[in-house]
Amino acid sequence: MQPRMRNPAVVLPDAMQPIQAILETAHSAGVDGRLLELVHLRVSQINGCSACVDGGARTARKAGVSDERLATVAAWREAPYFTAAERAALALAEAATRLADRPDAVSDEVWDTAATYFDEQRLAAIILMIGVTNLFNRLNATTRQIAGARG
Fold first, then answer.
1. Pairwise CA distance, residues 39 & 122, whole Å
2. pTM here?
């Protein structure tokens, strides 16, 4: 398999730096980096972006996410390895990624649960991570970026 083209954010050199700045801002907002990496991985799994699942698993492992959590993030509801706060963030990530799946894309229940664990700044960071991950998933899936390929 070959990619259709390089990632558009690489093709247009002025695009990558602002995207990276958003990620850096999200990572500096006080949310545990391991949680942000789990959010990234789960969103990428939902979107079927092999390049982001592969890269996300590698980044999460480097951030200290255990193999058990990496292996079960797709089944986080049934796995015993996630805290209540992590479950709230993963539920928010799933709802915000699957916007068209229901009329009230992010229900009050999902939102209120997340808001009990995260203040506005931390919610903003999680939402930015969800959004940027969805952006990268769409860029990579559309252009058929290859899992494991670097550059």
1. 13
2. 0.95
